[in-house]
Amino acid sequence: MTITPQNAQIGDMIPDHKFGPVTRKTLALYAGASGDHNPIHIDLDFAKKAGMDDVFAHGMLSMAQLGRLVTNFAGQANIRHLDTRFTALTPVGAIVDCTGEVTDRREEDGETLLTLKLAAHIDDGTQTLKGEAIIAV
Fold first, then answer.
1. What digits encode the pLDDT tens for the residues 10-43?
2. pTM greater than 0.90
3. How far apart are CA 12 and CA 79, in angstroms?
4. Which of 31, 25, 17 is nearest to 92 (CA)?
5. Residues sharing a CB contact under 8 Å with residue 117, sequence separation 6 or more, in sequence order
6. Are 105 and 132 in contact (CB under 8 A)?
7. Residues 54-92: pLDDT tens digits?
8. Which residues contact 135 (CB under 8 A, 6 or more apart)?
9. 3-class secondary-structure state, position 106
């Protein structure tokens, strides 16, 4: 059975969202779209001078993918809250798997609300983001 907001229960995993691999082109395009041209994300020489092995993805690029996970599941109009915290860098070449688990289902102010525990992990298992969303059913 496909999990939908209407039938989701505590403990259910919502359909995941994968993106990547993260490429230098992805980072350059995101920098242009977001206006975030911090050289740590697009200039290898700058990143190396800062003590990094390579450039790495913008945190907000990964956060946007968690947002996509939630909107793919519930639709943008049904999001009541979205909160994330960065926990590790996303390197070039990584594939990111965004997941969500239903941790609460309740009635509040005439709406059925689901709380989702969110996470993003790269292909080596490192968690790069964690968060929470509340959606209306």
1. 999 999 999 999 999 999 999 999 999 999 999 9
2. yes
3. 18
4. 25
5. 100, 101, 103, 130, 131, 132
6. no
7. 999 999 999 999 999 999 999 999 999 999 999 999 999
8. 5, 70, 73, 74, 78, 79, 80, 113, 114, 116
9. strand
108-114 average pLDDT score: 96
Provide the β-strand partners of residue 22: none
Neighbouring CB atoms inside 10 A of 59's CB total: 18
pLDDT exceeding 70 applies to what percent of the chain? 100
Give me the phi and psi of 118, to 5 degrees please.
Answer: -110, 150
- pLDDT for residue 1 is more than 80: no
Contact predicate 116/92, CB 8 Å = no
CA atoms within a 13 Å half-sphere pointing along the CA-CB vector of 58: 23
In single-letter form, the type of residue at position 48 comes to: K
The C-alpha angle 41, 124, 121, rounded to 5 degrees, equals 70
Is the CB of residue 4 less than 8 Å from the CB of residue 98? no
